[in-house]
Design brief:
Blueprint: H1 3-10, H2 16-35, H3 43-63, H4 84-94, E1 99-102, E2 114-117, H5 118-137, H6 141-175, H7 197-211
Antiparallel strand pairs: 1-2
Organism: Streptomyces nanshensis
Protein name: DUF5063 domain-containing protein
Pfam family, one: DUF5063
């Protein structure tokens, strides 16, 4: 695709590819900014909004008929950008609520919940989205749409929706003033230990203090 053709597509805000690319680029930029940690109190609300917007783009891709790339083999986009630094920054920012439980396949009978990390999920989603954006920025629009659609169904869609569900749950715990279940032992390489009420209260207190105000919670008033 020529540069003139690509520019013509980008200049049309109603074009499907432009809308999807804009939503994806917005997510990449926003999560990158959140990971910097400049505004930690607003991290959860921002992630709730951005993941919700991204899932709208994913839904549009999933509902669309299959995209077929122009070229038979995927062109080389060069080395993938390193997301380890972002992953580590997000893990530190989201501690102690980075780890959560998720059912990998809700249609598989008696599927046991597995532990996942929001920081891993967000970094993995960013990796998939950047891969397609590299094609898009090089003018390979059909390749970008094919990749975003395919990886939405196979990887970043389930990953982002799981992360969104976890963050929505965090927001609900804070706004509805309900304590978190015990988090002791809940890790990606171990089973949850449900005995530690002290850690449960600590995690709930951290959540309320750090994200309660940005979510509109009123601080408790002392007795007169």
């Amino acid at each position: 695709m020529s540069e003139a053709t690509l520019n013509a597509i980008k200049d049309n805000p109603d074009d499907f590819a432009v809308q999807i690319a804009d939503q994806i680029e917005s997510f990449i930029v926003s999560v990158t900014e959140v990971a910097k940690g400049d505004d930690p109190d607003s991290a959860i609300p921002y992630l709730l909004l951005e993941l919700s917007q991204l899932m709208l783009a994913g839904g549009r891709l999933g509902a669309h008929e299959d995209f077929v790339p122009v070229e038979r083999y995927e062109p080389d986009i060069g080395p993938e950008a390193d997301v380890d630094e972002m992953r580590l920054k997000l893990a530190a920012l989201l501690d102690p609520v980075d780890v959560y439980s998720e059912v990998f396949d809700p249609y598989k009978p008696r599927t046991a919940p597995v532990a996942s990390r929001l920081s891993d999920d967000l970094a993995d989603v960013i990796t998939d989205l950047r891969h397609g954006m590299a094609h898009y920025n090089e003018g390979r629009v059909s390749e970008a749409l094919w990749w975003w659609q395919f990886s939405y169904l196979s990887n970043w869609g389930p990953t982002a929706s799981a992360a969104l569900r976890a963050i929505q749950s965090l927001v609900a715990h804070v706004r509805l003033d309900t304590p978190l279940d015990a988090l002791d032992g809940l890790d990606t390489d171990s089973n949850a230990d449900e005995d530690d009420g002290e850690l449960e209260q600590e995690a709930g207190a951290v959540m309320a203090a750090e994200i309660g105000v940005p979510l509109g919670m009123q601080p408790e008033r002392g007795g007169s």
